[in-house]
Amino acid sequence: MDHFRGPVKTDCEELLGRFQMTESVRYQQFAEIWRDMDFSSIFYGKLEPNDRRRFARLVLSVASPYFFPPYTFQIRVGGLYLLYGLFNTQLAIPKEKIRVALKDWKEVMQFQKDAVNAKHYDVVYVFRKLLSDKAFCFTAMPTPLNFRIKREDGMKRKICEEFVDPPSRPQELVTTDVLEEIANIHEHYEGVKKAVFTEPDPNLNIVQQNLVSKLNSTILTYSSWQMNRATSEQQDAGEGPSNQECSSRAQLLASIKSKSYGQVIEASKSRRHRQAELVTTAGPDISPVVPAKKKRFPSLKTRTQLRFRTQGNTSEDSSLTRLWCLSAVKEEMETEKKKKKFNWNPNKSSDPT
User: Residue 210 sits in which domain range?
Assistant: First the structure.
C-alpha cells in the first residue's frame, strides 16, 4: 500500500489548496469542492475486499496530519472536514478509525476552544459528530511502530510550506523600505532638534542613537535563531525522541514494573498448593518476604493417644487403666485362638478298658 501514499497526499493537498483559496472556514464551501472533485470515489479503486481496510487506514493516516499544528487554522479546519468525509465514505465495515496520539489531544481541545470563541459552529458540530460516532482511536504514537523495520525516507512526514503560517513575521514587517524610512525620520528629528535648541543638551536623547543599525542586527539575530531551531526540530522529528524524553519514559516504565512486581497475584485453584512468593525490587538489602506456613493440627489418632497417656500418668494405678478399648478386644481374640480344638479320631476306641 505504500505506493498509494504519494498520489493520495497529492489529492489531499489539491483539495486543501482549493479550500484555502476560498479564504473561508465554512463547511458549505468545502462540500462544494468535495463534490466538484468527486473525492469520495477515492475508495472505488480496483481493490480486493481484504485490501479495502488497509487502504482506508492509509488514506486516514495521510489526511490526519493536516488536522494538527503547525498548519494554519483554515487548513486545520479543512483537515477536519476531510477526515469527516473520508471516515463516512470509506468502504471498510466496520469503519476504520482515525489515530490520534495522546500528546496531540491537548492541541485538539485548544482547536475546539478557538472555534467556539470565534463562533465557527459548523466546525464545532463536525468535530463533536466525530466524537459521538467514536471515530477517534487514541494511541500512544501517531503512527504504528514496528520492531526492527527500517524507516524509509518517503515515510517521514513532510510539511507543505504553503499551508504553514509564515514564521518570518518580523522579517516581513521590517523590510529595506521600512529601514530607509526610519533612517529618514531619524535624520529629520536630529535636524529639528538642532533648529529648536541653539545649544542642544547632549543628554536629551528621546530616540536611541543608531536605531536603524541596531534594529537590523536584531532582526538578523532572530532569523538565525529561528533557522537553527527549525533545523533542530526537524532532526529530532526524523531521528526520534530526545534524550530527556527517553529518560523520562524509561523512568516511568521502571516505576510501573516495580509496582507490578511488588504485588502478589492470587494463584488459581489448581496451583494454590504452591506457595506464592513476593519479589521486591526496592533494593538488594531487602530479602524476599515469604508468607508463613499454615499450622497443621494433629490427627484424631494422635490427639486420642495424647489424651489417654495424660490420664494414665495422673491416675494412682496406671496398670489398671485401660488405654484403648480395641486393645482389650484384641487380647481376648488372641486367647481364643490359643485354645485347643477337639479332634475326634474314629479309629481310636472310646472305651478305656
Answer: 169-244
